[in-house]
Design goal:
heterodimer; A: about 180 residues; mainly alpha; Rna Polymerase Sigma Factor, Chain: A; Arc Repressor Mutant, subunit A; 2 domains; about 0% strand; B: about 750 residues; two-stranded antiparallel sheet; 35 helices
């Protein structure tokens, strides 16, 4: 099967794996990033990304173009996340998929977020050292606000404000670059 | 305020960048082994058995067997084989042969009706445009006036005619003094040139109840004559009482009511009953529910008990305002400027904030803007947020909408929509629907008290930290919205540097409320939902693709009734009474049972549809027995589930489990949404076929295509269930064009 050209004559064939592998390679990062963005940790995102492709390969889709495929994969991933959350009796992270999808397209639409990550790298370097340190501790070392505050010699409230401002600047900077 | 999506995405990217994390590589070979499930052979046996025994009698199973025996061992291949076989012409011919003559007749009738509609739809649009254009030529000679002109005339007439108790003094006339500068751009009036064309306003003043009835009757009669439609006969008094009682006070008339009613003089008994009924508690309760449904967006999921309690308090508030005779425009104004907590015990408790809490939840300001444009103004918010009919960026759409007819053009441009969204984004909803802070604090003695105390912890407030809103055009360019109203009034815009004061935002919302409630479209929207509550569908849809028949006359009547409604201080009881006394409300309902559907000729079906469109028979949708094709579908499914059910519908969904306990010849299950897609399907009018082609040329994902089909028919996107069913339909037909056409056809009124 070619994932993107399933028709009556080819349906009885088994998947043409080089094509499937290509399909996976093209979309994997985008699906994974999307899952991370809607609240999955790395491990869950890995699992659900795999489940997403498994689900699609079991029930192939008619592909019009890459953007449509990516959109469909995100939908599948989202539903798998909901199912997963329901199983563990937890609430779903984002409630309005339509709205989220629009923001996602704005941020990462065309190239699975590569441009956004590049922009982010650039913008991050422009932050003050203290802001960079605070964000590194928060996102890389999962440090608590208290630990960050102690490290920087400021109050917890100050640490919170510092990170909020830094994130605000990053958002503006990245959005400006994406525009 | 909740974390925004952008913030959420940024944080995930930041985390990926700083943590240097990458996705785990997927092994395609491993997936291969998982796709080819070792258990599939067992399932295949069961599935093929079902296929051969259950369907062999109805179709040629050759294709299924040959494909299955070719070596495919996945359950999907069996599904595919069965779908293939069911799609072959031999299936239908053999199925039809086996079906009773009744079912065969139904299929033919559906098909023919669709074909006929296609022909008819095109012809009618053409004839309407001819009428419209000839009317434009004769416009100067015609003394007819539209709602806006009535408004002008009322303002211009300083001296009310004596002897009319319902005339308003100049001070109390709530019309805009200069409608051309009104909130929405005014539309050109069109009408039809006939010597017996009724004068829509009956003059230039607020009409009495009798005159209002005559206004409607004259216009309806004119519309019927113009198209050679003969209305059904009028119903008797007893039937009228039952109908009026159900639709006006929400409950059937008792035998006592009936005898009271009949004891009055025949010439006055209806009026007497209406006068009495419109003063009752039941009347206000019933119309409160209707009004709430009209202004609130459709709920996609079941509401939590807390949210339902909030809704009930909102309705109680609405009812109290209606009973105090507060005009609808003032009630809506109060809703639009409302803020406060939904908790009944909070010091800033504001039950009317429920509206904002529902429409602007999750910072979804697009939904809130849709609620204003669609639910309050009757505009197509879901269309204009992307497509700009005023800018003509979709020439194809302009053609489809018959540009000769200005009525189908929206008054709002896409930029207007997003500027409005920018204003609306100044509001913020905090808290959750399903949680209550009071639960733990209050321990009521009985459950009913607990119910009363229940509320969500949602709160509506002005967001001092609001931001500039950006929106994307179809060409993907990103535009910053201006914070201004469509009438040009510029409001306080968000500052990226400092918070905006709540007072300034409040003033924005006050201006928004003033703009919305002074729009002629607002008046017409109110008349439309009242009309729909009594006669099954809105008086005028204003969307030519969906509802073209008699659009000019209906829109003209709507404008006049809208102006009259405003002139009568939005008196709900007066409008309800007037509509209930019109000929259209008193007509016989045309038979709509399945047997009639099956035995009627295509011409009869077409006549039936035309009468429904032009209110020349009481709509079958209000008939509690068999309302529509959907009901017929349900009837078929219930009556013939084992034999007739499936072939009549499309055999799309195969049973997932072989352990369901059903015998093999039981028809596979079809979800309700699918049933509706299929059974109500008919051939699309040409205009819609072209519209679908435009959609297919774009790169819209499937879900968006489905949403477009739903937007077109109902101005609301597909629900999750409908999306799932649509996806299944696509998977079965494997043809986007065919699938989307069927979905669209199924959704048309």
């Amino acid at each position: 099967m070619k994932v993107d050209s399933l028709d009556a004559t080819s349906r009885t064939d088994y998947p043409d794996w080089p094509d499937a592998a290509e399909f996976i390679e093209k979309h994997q990062t985008g699906v994974w990033r999307f899952l991370r963005a809607i609240g999955c940790d790395g491990s869950l995102a890995d699992d659900l990304t795999q489940e997403t492709f498994l689900s699609v390969l079991r029930r192939p889709i008619e592909i019009v173009n890459d953007a449509a495929s990516a959109s469909y994969l995100r939908r599948v991933a989202y539903h798998l996340l909901i199912t997963s959350k329901r199983r563990s009796a937890r609430t779903v992270v984002t409630s309005s998929m339509e709205v989220f999808e629009k923001d996602w397209m704005r941020w990462a639409g065309e190239d699975s977020g590569e441009t956004a990550i590049d922009a982010l790298t650039d913008c991050f370097e422009r932050l003050t050292d203290r802001a960079q340190l605070a964000l590194r501790m928060r996102f890389s070392e999962q440090a608590t606000r208290e630990e960050i505050a102690t490290e920087l010699g400021i109050t917890e409230h100050g640490a919170k404000n510092l990170m909020q401002r830094a994130k605000g600047l990053l958002r503006e900077c990245v959005e400006a670059k994406l525009r | 305020m909740n974390k925004s999506n952008s913030e959420q995405i940024l944080e995930s990217f930041l985390s990926e960048y700083l943590d240097d994390s990458v996705p785990r590589k997927i092994d395609a070979t491993e997936l291969q082994t998982r796709v080819i499930d070792p258990q599939s052979a067992l399932r295949f046996d069961a599935a093929s058995k079902a296929a051969n025994s259950g369907w062999a009698a109805l179709s040629s199973a050759q294709g299924a067997r040959s494909i299955a025996s070719a070596g495919s061992r996945t359950i999907d291949s069996v599904h595919y084989a069965r779908r293939q076989k069911l799609r072959t012409p031999s299936f239908w011919s053999k199925s039809l042969y086996l079906l009773s003559g009744v079912a065969a007749g139904a299929l033919l009738a559906f098909g023919s009706w669709g074909f006929l509609n296609q022909e008819k739809g095109t012809g009618l649009i053409d004839s309407k445009s001819d009428v419209a254009s000839s009317e434009l030529d004769l416009k100067d000679k015609n003394s007819d006036v539209t709602g806006n002109e009535i408004a002008n005339n009322i303002v211009a007439q300083a001296t009310p005619s004596p002897g009319r108790s319902e005339l308003l003094s100049m001070d109390s006339v709530p019309f805009p003094t200069n409608p051309s500068n009104g909130p929405l751009k005014t539309k050109r009036s069109t009408g039809s040139d006939m010597s017996n064309k009724p004068a829509m306003s009956g003059g230039s003043v607020v009409l009495s109840s009798d005159q209002l009835v005559s206004l409607v009757d004259d216009q309806m009669e004119y519309m019927w004559k113009l198209r050679g439609v003969s209305p059904t006969t009028a119903i008797a008094d007893e039937q009228w009482l039952q109908r009026a009682s159900l639709l006006i006070i929400g409950k059937p008339a008792s035998s006592e009511d009936q005898s009271d009613f009949l004891s009055n003089s025949p010439s006055t008994r209806r009026q007497t009953w209406l006068d009495k009924a419109t003063q009752t508690e039941d009347f206000y309760q019933h119309w409160t529910n209707k009004f709430a449904s009209a202004i609130l967006p459709k709920s996609e999921s079941t509401e939590s008990p807390e949210s339902l309690a909030d809704r009930n308090r909102f309705k109680q508030w609405l009812q109290s305002r209606l009973q105090e005779s507060i005009p609808l425009n003032e009630i809506v104004s109060e809703i639009l400027v409302a803020q406060g907590s939904l908790q009944s015990t909070a010091s800033d408790h504001s039950p009317q904030s429920y509206w904002w809490a529902q429409v602007a939840a999750n910072d979804d300001h697009s939904r809130a803007t849709n609620a204003i444009t669609s639910n309050l103004l009757g505009e197509r918010g879901s269309c204009i947020r992307c497509h700009d009919s005023t800018a003509g960026d979709r020439q194809d759409t302009a053609k489809l909408r018959n540009t000769k007819d200005p009525l189908v053009q929206s008054s709002l441009s896409r930029d207007d929509y997003w500027n409005l969204a920018s204003v609306v984004s100044g509001i913020s909803v905090s808290g959750k629907k399903g949680t209550s802070n009071e639960k733990s604090n209050n321990t009521p003695a009985v459950a009913s008290n607990q119910e009363q105390q229940r509320s969500s912890n949602r709160s509506v407030s002005y967001d001092e930290d609001w931001h500039t809103l950006f929106y994307e055009r179809l060409d993907r360019s990103l535009i910053a919205a201006n914070t201004k109203l469509p009438n040009g009034a510029r409001l306080t815009a968000p500052s990226e540097k400092r918070p905006t004061s709540k007072d300034a935002i409040r003033k924005n919302f006050e201006q928004l409320a003033s703009w919305v409630t002074s729009a002629p479209e607002f008046d017409q929207r109110q008349v439309n939902w009242v009309w729909e509550s009594l006669l099954g569908k809105p008086l005028s849809n204003r969307f030519v693709i969906v509802d073209s028949e008699g659009l000019v006359e209906k829109q003209e009547l709507l404008e006049a009734l809208g102006a009259q409604f405003r002139g009568s201080q939005f008196s709900l009881s007066k409008l309800v009474k007037a509509i209930a006394l019109t000929n259209a409300f008193q007509l016989e309902s045309q038979s709509c049972d399945p047997v009639w559907y099956i035995t009627s000729t295509p011409q009869e079906l077409a006549d039936y549809q035309q009468r429904q469109n032009l209110f020349a028979s009481f709509p079958a949708t209000m008939d509690p027995s068999f309302r529509s094709l959907k009901n017929v579908a349900t009837w078929f499914r219930k009556s013939h589930s084992s034999v007739l059910g499936q072939p009549v519908f499309d055999p799309i969904k195969l049973p997932k489990s072989k352990d369901s306990g059903k015998s093999d010849n039981v028809a596979p299950e079809v979800t309700p949404a699918q049933t509706e897609f299929i059974v109500r399907s008919r051939v699309l009018p040409k205009g819609l076929v072209a519209e679908v082609e435009q959609w297919l040329k774009s790169s819209m994902p499937w879900e968006e295509l489905v949403d477009h089909a739903f937007y077109l028919a109902d101005d609301a996107p597909a629900t999750k269930l409908e999306q799932m069913s649509a996806r299944e339909l696509l998977n079965s037909t494997r043809d986007r064009r065919q699938a989307i056409q069927r979905i669209l056809a199924s959704q048309l009124p």
